[in-house]
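Below is how a single chain appears once it has passed through the pipeline. First comes the sequence as given, then the structure the pipeline wrote out for it. We keep one example in the README because the format questions we get most often are answered faster by looking than by reading.
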Amino acid sequence: MMGTILSAMDQLLLAAQTIDLAIGGMTCASCVSRVEKSLAKVPGVQEVAVNLATETAHLRAAPGTRLEELIAAVTRAGYTATLRAQGRPQSHRREKIELIAAVLLSAPLFASMLWPLRGWVELALATLIQFWLGARFYVAGYKALRAGTGNMDVLVALGTSAAYGLSVWDYTTAGPLYFESSAAIITFIRLGKYLESRVKREAAGAITGLNNLRPALAHVPGRGDVPAQSLIPGDEVELRPGERVPADGIITSGTSSLDESPLTGESLPVARAPGEALLAGALNLDGVLRLRVTAAAGESFLDRIARLIDAAQASKARVQRLADRVAAVFVPIIIAIAAVTFVGWLAHGAPLAAALINAVSVLVIACPCALGLATPAAILAGTGVAAQRGILLRNADAIEAAAHVNMVVFDKTGTLTSGKPQLTGIPFLQGITRERALDIASALAASDTHPLASALRRPNPPQAESVRILPGRGVEGQVAGQRYILGSAALIADAGGTAPPLTSTATLSYLARADGTCLAAFAFTDTIRPGARAAIDRLKSMGIGVQLLSGDREAAAQAVGAELGIEQVIAHATPEQKIAAIHALHAAGKTTAMVGDGVNDAPALAAADLGMAMGQGADVAIEAADISLLRPDLALVPDALALSRKTWNVLWQGLFWAMIYNLIGIPAAAFGLLSPTIAGAAMAASSVCVLANALRLRNWRPA
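Resulting structure:
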C-alpha cells in the first residue's frame, strides 16, 4: 500500500504542506547542515529542519515542489531519503552482527600488545576490519567529499587509513606495527554507534508506545472482526473487557471503567456511561460497551497526539542552529589542525610514525557527533516523558519558553474553576417573567461555547436567529422577532444600558434588549478545581509569580483570588484588555505563560510568551497551544514548567560537555597525550554519554 502511495506522490505535485522524510547515512552535525542546505536549495521549499536524533527532515513546501526533487537533492548530498510514512529498513540485527565480528577480530590485535602475533596474522585481521567493517566510513566519506563537504566519516576514514597504511609500510620494512590503533578506532566507533542507536530508539519510544495502543481489529456487530483502520464515523462497535478502544466514539449502551493513562496521564480508571466519549487506545476494564465511531482512521485523538509529539521531536531549538553552524565548518578546521600537528611534530624531530599517530588522534577525537546530538536527544526524551504525563509540548521553542517563565497568568472560569457553573438564582427581573427570561437566555446560549452558557440551556428552547458570538462579552440574537443580548455588564453598557447594582460574589450574566434595557440577571456559582491551591503554592515555591486575569465581575474574581492565595487579580477584562495586561507584564520584564481553555482565551494565549491550553481529552485545543494539558488537573501547570526547566538544563549540559570534550580532547591529542585507541574510545563514549544524560529525563518525577 505504501508503495502505491509513494508512486502516486511521485507523479503528483505536492500541495503546500508539511513533508517528513526519513534520512539515511547521517552520522554527525555536519551531515545535518549538509542535508538542510541541499533541501533548502530545492525550488518551493519554504522551511526545513533536519534532526540527527530522529534521522528525519521536516519540511514545508509550496505547490509545485515534487517529492522526487527532494529525494534527488538529498541523494546528491550523499545521503538517502524516503517518504517517512514508509519507514526505514531495520538494520539493527546487521549492526549487532557486524559489531560482534569487529570485537572478535580486534581482540587478538589488542592482546598482541602483551602476547605478540605474527605480522601476517595482524595484517589479515586488520585488513578485514579496515575494508569490511570499516567500509561504511569510506562509502559515506566519499559521498560527503563528492558533495563538497566533510563529516565524521571523512575524519574516521582518514585517521584509520593513515594508521593502517603506516602499519602496512612498517610490515614491509620490519618496523613496529600499529594495526591495533586502526582496528580499535573502527571497533569503538561501531560500538558507540550501536549503543547510540539503541538509546535513540528508547528515547523515541513515546510514538511507538502510542501506536501500539491501537488494536488491529474491531468487533462490528453483524460484520464480525474488521480492521480498526477501516472504521468510519457512524459504525457501531462492541467493546469487551480487556480490549482497547479501536476508534474515538460515543457510548450508546453499557457502563464500564476505562484506563486512559497512556493518553491523558490520569493514573486512576475513569467511569464512562452512555452518551460519554471514548478515546481510541483507552483500555476497557470491566464492562461490555457499544460505541458509535465519531472519528475516521488517522483523525482520532490518539493520532493527533502522535502527530504533535512527532512534530515536537523533529523540531529544532534556536541554540541548535548555532551548533549546526559551528559543525558546518568543523571538519575542515580539524583536518587543518591534524595537518599542523603532523608537520609540527616532524619539525620538532619526532619520527614519522609518532607524528602521524598524533595527527590520527586529532582526526578521530574531534568528531562532532556529540555536538549534533545534545539538543535533539534532550528534546526527544523530554517530549516523550511529558506526553506520558498528559503534557504535550508543541516544539523545542515551547520548551525554551517554558523553561524561562517567571509569571503565570490564569483565566478563571473553566481553568481555576471546574468550568461547570450552576445557575443559583435570578436576583433581578424587570418587565419579564422568570420563565420567559430563562427561555430567551436558553435560546441564545444554545450557540454559545462559554461555560456559563451550559448552565442556561433548557430542553426544547425557542429558536434563536441571527445569533452572533461576542468574544469575552456574550452573545446576541433574535428570539420571536425581538433582538436580545446576553452577557457581561460591559456588554450592557456598550448597548447603552446599565446593569443593575447587585452585591454578590457570584458570577453574573445579564439579559437585555438590544437597546441595553436590562431584563434579568442570572447568578452562577462554580467550584474551585481540586488541587488548585496546591498548584498555585507550588508555582510560588518555584519562584514564579501568579496573576488572575478574568472577564468576570470584580467581586467574583477577587473571591476566587482570595481563596487561592492570588494577590494580583484583574477583573472585567475584555479580550483586548487581556492582551494589554499580558503586554504590560512583558514591559515589566516578565516572561509569561497564559493558562486558559484554549478557545475563549485564544487572543491572550497567543499574546503570552507561552500559551497553555487546558482541557479534557479530545476537547483540548492541542493543535493551537504551545503546551496542551490533556486532563483538567492544575498540577500539570507546574509539572510542565518544571519538566521544561529540567529538559533545558539537560540540553545545555549536553552542549557544554560536547564543547568541553573537544576543547580538551583536541589539544591533548595534538600534543601526543592521547593514543588513537583512546581517542576512538573517547569519541564513541562522548555521544553515548550525551544520549544517556538525556535519557535520565525518563526518570523525571514531579516534586
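Confidence is low (pLDDT under 50) at residues 1-15.

See the next section for the split statistics.
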